[in-house]
Amino acid sequence: MFAWVFHRISGVLLIFLLSLQLLTGFYQSSLSNSETVKALAGLHDHAILVNLLAFLIIFHALYGLRTILMDLGVRRERLLFWIATTLGVVLFIGFLAAFAMVNA
Question: Which of 5, 11, 12, 75 has the most C-beta neighbours closer than 10 Å?
Fold first, then answer.
């Protein structure tokens, strides 16, 4: 049940966050010196937003794959949940390590 609810909520959040990333990306190339433009451009590389976006993409994709496998007839729902969750944690820790190395 948790995976189903998380998958729906993360989908909505991803639509919002990806739209925000696209919008703030446009502000990064702006030649304006306005404080508003600078603040919006700064959101594009904000560490918390980037990490949240990566977290949501990883788990949304893995729980989506879990849902597809269940639709195809795999009946090991609990095992699929733990595999997706464990793989998601490993991938996200790998992302955090790479993100920390690049931004150090």
Answer: 11
Q: How many other C-beta atoms can be found within 10 angstroms of the C-beta atom of residue 104? A: 5
pLDDT digits (tens, 9 = 90+) for 9-57: 999 999 999 998 888 888 777 777 788 888 888 888 888 999 999 999 9
**N-terminal to C-terminal alpha carbon distance within the chain:** 39
Q: Which residues contact 48 (CB under 8 A, 6 or more apart)?
A: none
Is the pTM value of this prediction over 0.85?
yes
Q: CB–CB of 58/14 below 8 Å?
A: no
Q: Say which residues have a Cβ less than 8 Å from residue 14's Cβ, sequence separation at least 6.
A: 53, 56, 57, 60
Residue ranges making up the domain that contains 41 = 2-102
